[in-house]
Amino acid sequence: MKEGQREWILLCAVVCGGFFAGSVLPGILKMGSGTYAGLLSQYSLSRYQEIRVSGWELFTAVFQKRLSFFLFLWMSSYTVIGLAFHGLCLFMLASAAGLLLAVFLLQEGYGGALLFFCCLMPQWMLYLAAWREELFFLFHRRCWRADALPQGGAVMGRYDLKVLGKILLLCLWGCGVECFLGTWTMKIFLQYFH
Predict the structure, then answer these.
(1) Phi and psi dihedrals of 151, rounded to 5?
(2) Which of 21, 46, 19 is nearest to 116 (CA)?
(3) pTM here?
(4) Fewer beta carbons within 10 Å, N or C terminal of the chain?
(5) CA gap 146, 39 in Å, rounded
(6) H-helix or E-strand containing 129?
(7) Which residues contact 111 (CB under 8 A, 6 or more apart)?
(8) Which of 74, 90, 81, 89 is nearest to 164 (CA)?
(9) Share of the chain residues as helix, strand and coil, in percent rounded to the nearest 5
(10) Mind listing the pLDDT tens digit of every residue in the chain (194 residues)?
């Protein structure tokens, strides 16, 4: 088995393990029906329906967070422990998704699955595309040999900047969709299904 394939399998196992760990956490913590679980408390859901947030203010805050996250991962690709950083981040994101789905299912039953997808779609399709670019860049950097660099050559080349541009563009689109369309779909769900 090639080294790249081993790394992909490892990262897939990390994602599955993180999702499983997050989904069993409410059972371990004995959350019961999940009625007091933060975001899904009756108080929180009713307040969310009434909130009027400026889309641009929300976009600025979300874009700052997402951009710093993707830039950190992109820069970690140049380090020896870049794969470990990517694995840790994937595990944390997958466990958060598993926890969110489990709590939504406890609170809302099968409607919780729809609420979960309202939280994620469609912005996470763009974020997953950014993750894909990021992971391909990581594996490209890991296969690239430093001794192949010509004397006095730049460490960061045209390919690196092209990938960074793609990641930034996908992040920008994802944040726009999350802040404008994502909040709207959540409010529609809460209005008609809750």
Answers:
(1) -55, 125
(2) 19
(3) 0.77
(4) N
(5) 48
(6) helix 123-143
(7) 193, 194
(8) 74
(9) 80, 0, 20
(10) 565 688 888 889 999 999 999 888 877 776 655 454 454 554 455 555 556 667 788 888 889 999 999 999 999 998 889 889 999 999 999 999 998 888 888 877 888 888 888 778 788 899 999 999 999 999 888 776 444 544 444 467 888 999 999 999 999 999 998 888 877 777 777 666 65
CA dihedral 64, 65, 70, 76 (to 10 degrees): 110
Tokens 């709207």 found at: 184
Q: Which two tokens stand for residue 54?
A: 């400026």
Contact 43, 51 (CB under 8 A): no
Tokens of residue 61, six digits? 């805050």
Tokens of 164: 């960074």
Q: Which two tokens stand for residue 187?
A: 């409010």
Within a 10 A sphere around the Cβ of 159, how many other Cβ atoms? 12
CB 106 within 8 A of CB 37: yes
Q: How many angstroms separate the CA atoms of 131 and 184, rounded?
A: 25
Task: Return the SS3 of 78.
Answer: coil
Task: Look at residue 144 and give its three-state secondary structure.
Answer: coil
87 and 177 in contact (C-beta within 8 Å)?
no
Q: Which two tokens stand for residue 137?
A: 């860049």
Distance, in Å, from the CA atom of 194 to the CA atom of 85, rounded to the nearest integer, reads: 38
In whole angstroms, give the CA distance from residue 22 to residue 105. 13
